[in-house]
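User: I'm preparing a small set of examples for a lab meeting where we compare how different chains pack in three dimensions. I only have the primary sequence for this one, and I'd like the structure in token form so I can line it up with the others. Please keep the answer compact; I'll paste it straight into my notes.
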Amino acid sequence: ELVQAAESAGYDSVWVAESYGSDAVSVLAWLVPQTGEIRLGAAIMQVPARPPAAAAMAGVTIDALSGGRFIFGFGPSGPQVSEGWYGVEYAKPWGRTREYIEIVREIVAREGPLEHDGANYKLPIEGGTGQGKALKLNFHPVRNEIPVFVGAIGRRSVEMAAEICDGWIPIFFSPDAFEETWGEHLARGFEAGGRSRSDLEVSPSIQVAIDGDLETARNVVRTGLLLYLGGMGSRETNFYVDLACRFGFEEEALRVQSLFLDGDRGAAFEAIPDELVDATSLVGSEDEVAERVQRFTAAGVDRLIA
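Assistant: Understood. Below is the structure token output for the 306-residue chain.
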């Protein structure tokens, strides 16, 4: 019902997530016959969840069923989920993601049998029974190029997005800190790929609440920040804490993380300042949100995943 309402209101696209519960592929396929025009994006399909060929097969199938409305979205997840849930070592995650994207694009292009000799993937594999065969997708896709987005916030991953991807989905995005936080990394990626800013669709995922109870809305945003700053990583590796530090909230982010990991989630929740909530969301009156949307536009954002 939510997706149909969004489609009837003229929204460009709908995006489905996965973590360690429902998967993105099943939900997107289920939405296909219940929608007609809205594009169907994955934000994101986790790289350790499925081999690249399985991701490509799912993508071209959804694209065919929907008449060319699918959008790939990939990301390596984090070490806890990759190693604890999927049993896949979290080594060189973005090198692996780069190769993953290369293989998916090669399968979709369907220019010949799949052969890949990389640091992370070798297809056909070496060894085994010795009977591995280079294969080609056995039906013609609706499109031989399907857009590929990545969910990325780290320096190297954002550079990769700018270098090779069609779109970029940052989380906890602040238009006011955009250039300072990511500008040089985007520029470096564009230069490496021989591309320009117009080649990348910047599509941040952001919480939105308009003309409601402001404190309730902020608490919803605060709950999400609590999960990511406190629970989506360890003291040694937490990409979201690192991002908050780069936004200028180092002391607050480290305090939230420390309280959460020490087991005091209530105090961690209270330690998230309104300033961080407001910087990474669209909550307020209609006029306040409208003004802030203009700041996203001025910063060069192409799409808001609300």
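A couple of notes for your slides: The chain is about 45% helix and 10% strand. The first helix runs from residue 2 to 8.

User: Perfect, thanks.
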